[in-house]
Amino acid sequence: MTEFSKLGLSPATLEAVAATGYTEATPIQAQAIPVALAGRDVLGIAQTGTGKTAAFTLPMIDRLVAGRSKARMPRSLVICPTRELADQVAASFDRYSKGQKLSWALLIGGVSFGDQETKLDRGVDVLIATPGRLLDHFERGKLLLTGVQMMVVDEADRMLDMGFIPDIERIFKMTPPKKQTLFFSATMPPEITRLTKQFLKDPVRIEATRPATTAATITQHLVRIPSSEPKAKRMALRALINKEEVRNGIVFCNRKSEVDVVAKSLKVHGLDAAPIHGDLDQSLRMKTLADFRSGALRLLVASDVAARGLDIPDVSHVFNYDVPHHADDYVHRIGRTGRAGKTGETYMIITPADSRSLDKVIKLIGEDPKEEVLELDWSIAEGDSARQRERSGGRSGGRGGAKSSSTRSGGRERDRKPPPLPVEQQAATEPFRESSPAAEAAPAPAREDRPARPERGPRRERGPRTEREARPEPQAETRPEREARPAREERPRNDRPQQDRPREDRAPRRDRDEDGGQRVVGFGSDLPAFLKPPTK
User: Fold this and answer.
1) Cα–Cα distance measured from residue 372 to residue 369, given in angstroms and rounded to the nearest whole number
2) Which of 42, 138, 298, 526 is buried most, with the most CB atoms less than 10 Å from its CB?
3) Does the pTM exceed 0.70?
């Protein structure tokens, strides 16, 4: 291990580091800090929990203090994929810059624009932001990035997973070409490699550990259960929490909806738990994290939004309620424990449906976790799930109070008859059924609840409308004729005879013709004016 005092940092920065209790630098810090102080671009590849935040925060502080600030324009920019990670970077910058006259602004979603715009108007040295909110301020005309001298991209592979690469490219083009760039990522997929070749200039590649490896201080366990029912998985999770001496722990789920369900289940069974995911209000997310860091909250149920970059120094256990879809996420999840040389325990619940995802995880980490056996009565979970399915089937309105097994399993209901068509549609489709080859070979029997239709005769052809054809063309009226015409007597709307008549006398009378369609028979005595022949 290398001491911070040998990395070339200023005395004021070393004093702030010593106040936090750290004296020795991690491998990524020991290699990245001297290169960043020299002003060169850095391509840092290291897994989560290795101290990347301090690796770029400490040299950034020293370079900003040595330089001169410009009029209200930020000199340094840090881009983070999530709000929690951006908030953590801001806390780290505030902690290490004590005693220095540096200002910073945190631009993240979920909070009002007003407070952030006030800081921007006042002028800051460092912007710490998520891509979306940074671009929002830029499009509002509240932000100018032409004075950026140092730019940091943290957790670049996470940016790729979240679809932020186009935004990152746009932000790079908004900053000056001549700037120092520090680029950190846990893995290097092809898209990230393309980005580094496009925007980094002769970077120093620093690879502290091989990508996506687990720390040696973490003991990993597998727990196989015989059922894929959610209730069985929740039983197994509660059994593990009660079995182990869990001082505090994080439970990871694949879906945000599952996070809420699991957190509620743990609270119902007397365990102190709270959810955190992207759909929650930002103030609630920050309060939940603050409670977990301080020890006021024992269990944090999280989606992968909290899997990367969160610096929670002392987490005793991590539980993978779901096997992650991407094997890399497993490494980042369990990296929440066993940090800074401390030991940690991790458990992953495996169901019969998780074999493929489990194989990917084992292939990535290169080792087989220890298997843990739980002695539980799994039939309880199976019975409760079956009863719940029956109740849900009864509410669906099916005959007999429950759906058939083929419906529950998602199969096609081959024997289910479609609902009968309306009479008009049946009449419209009847000639086509009669003329089809299948109908000629085997005519369809008549329905039992309705007598068969009688044979229909040929459709009658309507003759020409001689009355309309013989109607003379109306002649335009001259001005003397209009002036000589007597004025029409105005009559109140309510006294018009048409309003006094019953509605059925005014409406055209309709009847069915021989082939089942509707046709207009006549208007009775109330023939509209446009159909009356002209008077001579």
Assistant:
1) 9
2) 42
3) no
State how far the Cα of 57 lies from the Cα of 94, in Å rounded to an integer: 10
CA angle (388, 321, 108) in 5-degree steps: 110
Q: Determine contact, residues 345/241, Cβ cutoff 8 Å.
A: no
Alpha helices in 374-527 (DSSP H): 378-395, 405-408, 423-435, 437-441, 466-470, 479-484, 497-500, 503-506
Cα 344 to its chain centre, rounded Å, is 30
For residue 129, what is the enclosing H or E element? strand 126-129
Q: Along the chain (536 residues), what's the average pLDDT of each consecutive run of 10 residues?
A: 87 91 87 95 82 92 84 89 90 90 91 90 93 94 92 91 91 94 89 93 85 76 91 93 88 92 95 89 87 92 72 86 88 82 89 91 87 83 60 47 40 46 48 43 49 58 52 59 60 50 49 48 61 66
Strand (E) positions, 133-199?
150-153, 180-185
Looking up tokens 């759909």 gives 279
Q: Which of 16, 104, 103, 21 has the alpha carbon at shortest distance from 58?
A: 16
What's the CATH fold of domain 2-207?
Rossmann fold (3.40.50)
Fold entry, domain 218-381: Rossmann fold (3.40.50)
